[in-house]
Design brief:
Elements (H helix, E strand, L loop, with lengths): L14 H4 L7 H7 L8 E5 L6 E7 L3 E2 L4 E2 L5 H4 L22 H6 L9 H4 L4 H4 L9 E2 L16
Parallel strand pairs: 2-5
Antiparallel strand pairs: 1-2, 3-4
The chain binds iron/sulfur cluster (2 copies).
């Protein structure tokens, strides 16, 4: 997940077409995140198959209205299960949602029309129904994660 970032601070507005993920500056990397909030939902893993199941229960640090981390800079220190995606190899992205820009680009895909870098509209993620804003609940309000397993259509 990511904090808010000013897109107009990026010099090359099509950087993702010209650079690999590892070549991107910190600002470019952060701009790639669409702010959907999906990766901040709790997940369950099947012990036998390794399959990952997302739930609607969001990390307690996620501001569900904005879908931003409430303490992005300190996130991995404050939340033991929080993963800094930039520290991963692309081969480790399979647990990310299929819509996640990092996974999409790592798999050779293109950013979706609703991605803010394409639409030019920071609200297009919510308007496209990709954001978790409409259904996420704080993990602090959840007793059993298995009761909150969800499945995305995209
Ligand atoms: S799933 Fe990907 S695009 Fe969505 S908030 Fe997480 S890192 Fe950003
Ligand atoms: S601390 Fe929680 S809300 Fe913040 S980035 Fe990590 S998983 Fe997301």
């Amino acid at each position: 997940m990511r904090g808010a970032i000013a897109i107009n601070t990026i010099n090359n507005m099509t950087f993702w077409l010209k650079k690999s993920l590892s070549e991107m500056t910190d600002t470019e990397w952060e701009a790639l995140c669409d702010g959907c909030g999906k990766c901040c939902l709790n997940k369950l893993e099947d012990d036998e198959t390794g399959d990952i199941f997302y739930t609607s229960a969001a990390c307690r640090m996620l501001d569900i209205t904005s879908c931003r981390c409430s303490n992005y800079l300190e996130r991995t220190r404050l939340v033991s299960g929080c993963i800094d995606v930039r520290q991963l190899n692309a081969s480790e992205f399979s647990w990310l949602p299929s819509t996640c820009a990092y996974r999409v680009l790592a798999e050779g895909g293109e950013l979706a029309a609703w991605h803010p870098l394409i639409s030019g509209n920071v609200f297009s993620v919510v308007e496209a129904g990709v954001s978790v804003r409409s259904y996420a609940v704080s993990e602090t309000q959840v007793d059993d994660l298995e009761d909150h397993i969800i499945e995305w259509l995209t």
